[in-house]
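Data card: per-record layout.
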Amino acid sequence: MNLVRLGSEQGGWWVDLDSVPPNSVVIDGGVGADLSFSFELVRIKDVTVIAVDPSEVSLEYLALRPPGIVFLPYALRAMDGPVTMYHNPLGSDTADREMPGARERRTYTASGIRLYDLVKANPAVSLVKLDIEGSELDVYQHCFGVPQVLIEFHTIQMPHMKGLFTLALRD
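The structure for this 171-residue chain is written out next.
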């Protein structure tokens, strides 16, 4: 195991580099305003990163077109179709209307894309990172067969979800 932290202080993640072979595919769900994790993976491991995020701040990456990173402006979901997003001017947007303060925020509609379809279409997926602001429980089950999965759970922000996380992780 070769466990290292990649990315910035805010956008960094611990990853086992031995589980990420060169030329594999990484799905980075929820990049927000920080692609530092993806940039370092591309530089160190020569992978292709599929970065998925519908937020307005992430749309700026579309114009950059960084080498090795394919950007998809969708909400990573368990199902296809439109999703109402709640804008957060101080951080990442969320699809969870139960997130504190979400109902008072400006909304917009984003297209959803299924993680299952991305994994199925890219058999060389070696890592999935999920920082999708409250949709983790809906999506993580589609990581089956992926060697490494990194998930940021938002139970502190969503106290109503704590019991569900425990149940889901037991199954």
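Known properties of this structure: The first strand starts at residue 3 and ends at 6. Residues 20 and 126 are 5 Å apart (CA to CA).

See the next section for split statistics.
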